Amino acid sequence: MTCIVSSGALNSTHSLTINKDPAPTCEHCKCILTIEHILCTCTAYEHNRKQYFPHPQLSHILLHSPKRNIFNYLTDIKLLTKFLRPDIALLC
Predict the structure, then answer these.
(1) What is the pLDDT of residues 5-31, one digit of tens each?
(2) I need a surface site. Which of 12, 20, 65, 71 has the fewest CB within 10 A?
């Protein structure tokens, strides 16, 4: 799961890379939607983030958080199925 998140194998970021689409924006903050924004800074998910990540820095989350926490966090905020590419979703 961490390699999926850190590699950018998400629908929104994959489309940006392959099709040169405009950068997706966060529906809550209206800023550019990035993995770091979702995992570390989006105010809409602050409550959920605190449950899973005591240190909300991207490097700490990806290197030291239990992988299950990343999966559960993305599931709880309902972004896992929204952004995960269908071909990758089958691996989860």
Answers:
(1) 544 445 555 454 566 778 888 999 999
(2) 20
